[in-house]
């Protein structure tokens, strides 16, 4: 089996084998490789090569590979494969993975693929597709261990030996009543470490953490992380057990949400989180970035207007212009740090709406402290540089720069706290709007603060 360092060699071997038409040898080699490694390579191949490689794999392995490829590659493969083969692969993979793949297709194509599946598996996928995208219902699997409260641990162990092999996880067993309502959860550890005749009713946790199928997947991930769960039961409003969400799916959610937030924080529209760099067409990458770039380009004219308004002051004390990049850069960096900290706190549930005033005062204090420390350094630096630029005004010029750093850092910290909190209150994604807003506000307002302090101290 290859390691991550060998993926480049594996890719080259696959390309060479296809070119030399050594398909039988290639199939033998790939049968021993990890599906995730094959998926990583497939994402980098041409369309025809992707289909060819997937068809060389045993069905179980091919299904795992299809689940692990990027969303864009998966969509292309599932439509290019023969209908019967596509149906077989969708049947083999977990129902939540199949639902995720089919949710990207147009209704007509989705129905064709569902019809190619066995009735039981197709019905499971249809049930999952009824729930909203990125919800708990889309993540859950209906295959879990069902037990009853009157079973003994000995009976439970015998039952587990014959459990459906498609059940994804057996570390948690779910105690249901006759109508399918969740009564409690028993761990496998409890069963194998207690006496053989102990009843599950005496072992089960009667108030487990649960979610309803409509809850957002990000909240699911938060609960699994907070309570250290291997699986999370999904129940209906009436308490009937619908399925479970396993920790491996939650890890995928965390990666997806984290990637999405990073992209949005950089001003890139959503949708790129589940795609690889090379599988994303250039036109799509440009479309996702151009919107915010155009907005920032236009709002950047505010800085030009500020410079134009204080043109007379700059012409009288030309040395002021040398410190503009330093001040704007410091303000932008300070605001970006604050935004990152606030968004992280909000994502983890550490900061809530009611904390807005408390957070603002906290960032005001820390901004003032940071600004004072940086301002002292800026004062000394400006004093040294000002000796060469404007010896007559060097002390006052240094004071302008130092005080401006204090004011801009404090202001940037406050703005960096208010923007994501305000976005959350307006039901906007804080990660999407915060970075562009900070860039625009801090650049223009920081420059205005600098020039106003200069006018006051230098009399220009």
Q: Report low-confidence residues grouped into runs of 5 or more.
A: none
Provide the residue-averaged pLDDT: 86
Number of helices: 22
Secondary-structure element order, N to C = HHHHHHHHHHHEHEEHHEEHHHHHHHH
Distance between the termini: 72 Å
Shape: elongated
CATH superfamily of the largest domain: SLC41 divalent cation transporters, integral membrane domain
Name given to the CATH architecture of the largest domain: Orthogonal Bundle
Q: What fold name goes in the CATH topology slot of the largest domain?
A: Tetracycline Repressor, domain 2
Portion of residues within helices: 55-70%
Strand arrangement within the widest β-sheet reads 1-2-3
Count of DSSP strands: 5
Structural class: mainly alpha
Round the Cα radius of gyration to an integer and report it.
30 Å
Biggest beta sheet summary:
3 strands, mixed
Share of β-strand residues: 5-15%
CATH class categorisation of the largest domain? Mainly Alpha
Overall number of structural domains: 3
List the helices and strands and how they pair.
Blueprint: H1 7-19, H2 23-30, H3 35-42, H4 47-56, H5 59-68, H6 71-80, H7 83-92, H8 95-102, H9 107-115, H10 119-129, H11 136-139, E1 146-147, H12 153-160, E2 172-176, E3 182-187, H13 188-192, H14 217-227, E4 231-235, E5 241-246, H15 247-265, H16 282-299, H17 301-309, H18 311-316, H19 324-347, H20 356-389, H21 394-425, H22 430-458
Parallel strand pairs: 1-2
Antiparallel strand pairs: 2-3, 4-5
Quick rundown:
With 460 residues, the protein is mainly alpha-helical. It has helices spanning 7-19, 23-30, 35-42, 47-56, 59-68, 71-80, 83-92, 95-102, 107-115, 119-129, 136-139, 153-160, 188-192, 217-227, 247-265, 282-299, 301-309, 311-316, 324-347, 356-389, 394-425, 430-458; strands at residues 146-147, 172-176, 182-187, 231-235, 241-246. It folds into three domains: 4-130, MgtE N-terminal domain-like (MgtE N-terminal fold); 146-252, CBS-domain (Roll), CATH 3.10.580; 300-458, SLC41 divalent cation transporters, integral membrane domain (Tetracycline Repressor, domain 2, Orthogonal Bundle), CATH 1.10.357.
